[in-house]
Amino acid sequence: MNIGQRIAEQSKPFFSYEFFPPKDPGEWPAFFGVVERLLPAGPLFASVTCGAGGSAQDGTLEIVSRLKKDFSLETMAHLTCVGATPEHVTDFLARLHDNGVDNVLALRGDPPKDGAIDQEASPFRHASDLVRFVRQKFPDFGIGVAGYPAPHPESPSFSSDWRYTVAKIREGANFVVTQLFFDVREYFHFVDRLNDMGVSVPVIPGILPVQSLASIRRTLSLCGANIPGKLYLELEAAHAEGGTEAVRQAGIAYAVRQIRTLLEGGAPGIHLYTLNRAETCLNILNEVGVL
């Protein structure tokens, strides 16, 4: 089913998951074990990432297909358009549809660092171009897009970033899933600005539980999100007192506070970046009363 329709039918807040497919198929049984442990929370849907530049797309296709068939999960495949041709995108969409998957998260993706792809010459310069193409080729597909409570690293200003988000929605996106953030005020400000600009599709906040200082530094360097100074000091203090496990527990507690505040403030649901870690997600879901 179109995930946008499923969201519209919800009368109460929901949870959804993001997974990333292990590169080594030998790790897939353990991955599916993680999925099975998280099913009792009743996720509305699950998204599955793809590699940089759209690599490992076959793995994404296999994972979303199996999650749909073997676990009865409504699934959404990440679809990037950097370096993609219309023929390649059409083929991938058709293969998804043939496997019962009718939802994509339409993303531009990151160009390769070697500059081998001239994105300016591509038929898909922006994610909005990809949304338009998907909507024309497969009009019944559910289409999600990324949103940035803090601007995308390449955006020159907040307002230009909001305009890009609005363009994706007006080309046919059904809903927005946000990039990770740690200050809930950024999320509510983002939603308010979109409403001011005349769009009101559901905006699902994406929550990433902090696992370690090293992991959060790496993540922030890649995505350009912000971290409140108070939180960073809390994490450093936790690390000094109890190492990585203390940081993980502090990260879980902070994610729980974020989720409670977001749901109390009217967020339609929570998209949990699982990092394929069942125990962390179960701790969070238990604390917020889902389990």
Characterization of the model:
The mean pLDDT is 91. With 291 residues, the chain is α/β, with parallel strands linked by helices. A 9-stranded parallel sheet has the order 7-6-5-4-3-2-1-9-8. It has helices at 3-8, 28-38, 57-71, 86-98, 127-137, 158-170, 184-196, 213-223, 229-264, 278-287, and strands at residues 14-19, 46-48, 75-80, 103-107, 142-147, 175-178, 203-204, 206-207, 269-273. Helices cover 48% and strands 13% of the residues. α5 (127-137) runs parallel beside α6 and α9 (229-264) crosses α10.
What is this structure's SSE topology?
Elements: H1 3-8, E1 14-19, H2 28-38, E2 46-48, H3 57-71, E3 75-80, H4 86-98, E4 103-107, H5 127-137, E5 142-147, H6 158-170, E6 175-178, H7 184-196, E7 203-204, E8 206-207, H8 213-223, H9 229-264, E9 269-273, H10 278-287
On the 0 to 100 scale, the average pLDDT is 91
User: Which stretches are poorly predicted, pLDDT < 50 over at least 5 residues?
Assistant: none
Oligomer: single chain
Q: Portion of residues in helices?
A: 40-55%
Shape, please? globular
**Estimated share of beta-strand residues:** 5-15%
For the largest sheet, list the strands in their spatial order: 7-6-5-4-3-2-1-9-8
The rounded Rg comes to: 18 Å
The count of DSSP E runs of length 2 or more, i.e. the number of strands, is 9
Q: SSE string, helix = H, strand = E?
A: HEHEHEHEHEHEHEEHHEH
Helix count? Answer: 10
Largest sheet: 9 strands, parallel
Report the span from N to C terminus.
25 Å
* Global structural class: alpha/beta
